[in-house]
């Protein structure tokens, strides 16, 4: 966790989340207008922007840019509770800022890259829970100890985002992030099924923290029998 003053961390979270929405959902909007990126290009855009944010802003704030990740780190005992609400507020502010910028170039009637269930809300809820579980588990495993600021950690996390967006994007939008879904929904005025993208990611990170704790359990030490004389 960063020891920098809270104001610097909040600025980093605001800028980072704005960048995530600007380039991630911006890719969706550009593809709506040009069909130049395709589904794979959109997934790659999300993975790439996450990698850049981790490498550039990670040393300042941890580059959570996701309220679910912030909550997950707090529950895991790796983030102070007094910073949770300020981080979430900064992320929401950054997300709305990013979506507002995307709206400036979007065509009339655009969803601004908002996530919506492809079928039922319950199916999307299950998908978002599973996706966020894997994302948070990867984050917890690759940021432990000396690996916290490593290049490979950033690659692993961004690759997870890109892979999950590629595979599950057509099902639920592959949000894994309440602000990533809420910001375009708020700016565009479409809050249908918004609860899915809050409940699913939060449930996913809680399950991931539990799983990480189980994986960290050390095997019992077996006493060695003394050698016979």
Automatic annotation (TrEMBL):
Key words, A-Z: Membrane, Transmembrane, Transmembrane helix, Transport
Statement: the UniProt record of this protein carries the keyword Lipoprotein: no
InterPro entries tied to this protein: Aquaporin-like, Aquaporin_transptr, MIP, MIP_CS
Compartment(s): Membrane
Domain of life: Bacteria
SUPFAM superfamilies reported in the protein's UniProt record: Aquaporin-like
Keyword Ion transport assigned: no
Topological relation to the membrane, as annotated: Multi-pass membrane protein
Membrane-spanning intervals of the chain: 9-30, 36-54, 84-106, 118-140, 152-173, 193-211
Similarity section: Belongs to the MIP/aquaporin (TC 1.A.8) family.
Protein name, entry field: Aquaporin
């Amino acid at each position: 966790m960063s020891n920098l003053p809270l104001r610097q961390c909040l600025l980093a979270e605001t800028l980072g989340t704005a960048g995530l929405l600007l380039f991630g959902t911006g890719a969706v909007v550009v593809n709506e207008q040009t069909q130049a990126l395709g589904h794979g290009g959109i997934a790659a855009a999300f993975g790439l922007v996450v990698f850049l944010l981790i490498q550039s802003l990670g040393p300042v704030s941890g580059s959570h840019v996701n309220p679910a990740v912030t909550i997950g780190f707090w529950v895991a005992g790796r983030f102070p509770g007094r910073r949770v609400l300020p981080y979430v507020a900064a992320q929401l502010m950054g997300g709305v800022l990013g979506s507002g910028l995307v709206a400036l170039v979007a065509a009339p009637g655009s969803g601004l890259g908002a996530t919506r269930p492809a079928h039922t809300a319950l199916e999307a809820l299950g998908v978002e829970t599973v996706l966020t579980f894997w994302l948070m588990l990867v984050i917890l495993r690759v940021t432990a100890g000396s690996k916290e600021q490593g290049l490979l950690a950033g690659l692993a996390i961004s690759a997870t985002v890109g892979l999950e967006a590629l595979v599950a994007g057509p099902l639920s939008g592959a949000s894994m992030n309440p602000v990533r879904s809420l910001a375009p929904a708020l700016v565009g005025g479409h809050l249908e099924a918004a609860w899915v993208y809050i409940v699913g990611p939060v449930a996913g990170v809680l399950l991931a923290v539990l799983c990480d704790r189980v994986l960290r359990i050390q095997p019992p030490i077996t006493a060695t029998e003394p050698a016979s004389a």
